[in-house]
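Subject: for your reference before the review

Hello V.,

The reviewers asked for a structural picture of the protein, and I figured it would be easier to keep everything in one thread rather than splitting it across files. Below is the amino acid sequence we used in the manuscript, unchanged from the supplementary table.
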Amino acid sequence: MAVQGSIQKRSVIIAGHRTSVSLEPEFWAALKDIALQRNVSINELVTEIDGQRRGNLSSALRVHVLTFLQARLAASAEPREGAVVATEPETAGGT
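And here is what came back from the structure prediction:
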């Protein structure tokens, strides 16, 4: 088992070209989960992210994972249909 936070270097194919990417195992696992959910390969997902990046690839992959997880968290925090939403109690002065 890899030490948490250690870097793993893996080969990926981006638009037909093999390259190496270094990421922590937690990010590789998250990319794999995202690819599975989208029904694409990791190479396809990385190619898509590579086409939209502005910085280095490893950073772009980490930002993509973070953005994906933030969106999932925000969606899970939204009230569901029929859910009761707690509100602040009114004060005695009506304000």
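For the response letter, the relevant points are probably these. Residues 64 and 81 are 29 Å apart (CA to CA). Helices lie at 25-38, 42-52, 57-77.

Happy to draft the paragraph if you're swamped.

O.
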